[in-house]
Specification:
about 180 residues; alpha+beta
Length: about 180
């Protein structure tokens, strides 16, 4: 299980092969890597993530999930019988992605790591509080589509997974200036 405490600071590198430095455009001469602090802000505020897992036969499974960034770890939940939970029981390797669906602006992020099921009640309560603060009435209101998620996580009706980043990638776009940043942990 990922440990609590100060999150490790990754090494940061700009990959010029996929950045505007290779094919300069106005404003791209001084393209730099995206700072990890900016990536963390995007991870904390993004509402929808896509989790990619591997089925036992090697085929990929990709599906949207709610996720919360907390203490250097990305947490997501699912039903215990859903395909992603079954896949992760066999192979914990996964990737979570989030970003903007726009060509000229935004920052897309990919976090790769190994998902570990969270069972510690104290960690569950911490992450439930983060989920509730982030998603608000979507989780806390009886009319919300995810109402009862906290209780489901506590009672086993839903499961929580923790993914401490092993590697992360950022694909930035700013009016034709492109960056490809890699963070290694």
């Amino acid at each position: 299980m990922p440990t609590h405490g100060p999150a490790p600071q990754p090494t940061t590198a700009l990959d010029a092969r996929y950045s505007s430095g290779l094919n300069p455009r106005p404003g791209a001469a001084d393209v730099t890597a995206t700072e990890w602090a900016e990536a963390r802000r995007h991870l904390a505020s993004a509402e929808i993530f896509w989790v990619s897992t591997v089925r036992p036969d090697g085929r990929l499974h990709v599906t949207p999930v709610l996720a919360a960034w907390h203490d250097g770890v990305l947490y997501f939940s699912t039903g215990p019988d859903e395909q992603k939970a079954q896949n992760l029981a066999t192979d914990g390797h996964c990737a979570l992605t989030t970003g903007r669906n726009a060509l000229a602006e935004g920052l897309d992020l990919v976090v790769e790591g190994t998902a570990e099921r969270v069972a510690d009640p104290a960690v569950l309560d911490e992450v439930i509080a983060v989920y509730e603060a982030k998603y608000g009435p979507q989780i806390t209101s009886p009319e919300g589509p995810f109402h009862g998620l906290g209780e489901a996580l506590r009672t086993g009706g839903a499961v929580l997974f923790a993914v401490a980043p092993a590697t992360a990638y950022g694909f930035g776009r700013d009016d034709g200036v492109f960056t490809h940043t890699r963070w290694a942990f």
